[in-house]
Amino acid sequence: MIPITAAEAMAMMSECFMEPVERLTPELSRESIPGWDSMGALMLIAEIDERFQIELSADESRTMKHVSDVLAFLAKHGALAG
């Protein structure tokens, strides 16, 4: 697995949540992102699995309340550079 940068992670989330990347910040809450609904969460789960072969469970996904939680998950599993 080749780790991605935070900017690349933001771009990935932008695609999953259909949200402009320039709007995403680590402190942005899930409630502030209309596309981070059940479908967006499934897109994120599938993307993380496909790109990194890391399983993000639906239960674990539901505990993520901010963009920073996704970044922390990626970092914890060695998928985020730096």
Protein architecture, described:
It is globular, with a radius of gyration of 11 Å. The protein has 82 residues and is mainly alpha-helical. The protein has one domain (6-76): Non-ribosomal Peptide Synthetase Peptidyl Carrier Protein, Chain A (Orthogonal Bundle), CATH 1.10.1200.10. The mean pLDDT is 97. 52% of the residues lie in helices and 0% in strands. It has helices at residues 6-17, 38-52, 58-63, 67-76. It has four helices and no strands.
Give the SSE layout.
Layout: H1 6-17, H2 38-52, H3 58-63, H4 67-76
In short:
The protein has 82 residues and is mostly helical. It is built from four helices and no strands.
Any descriptors?
82 residues, mainly alpha, Non-ribosomal Peptide Synthetase Peptidyl Carrier Protein, Chain A, globular
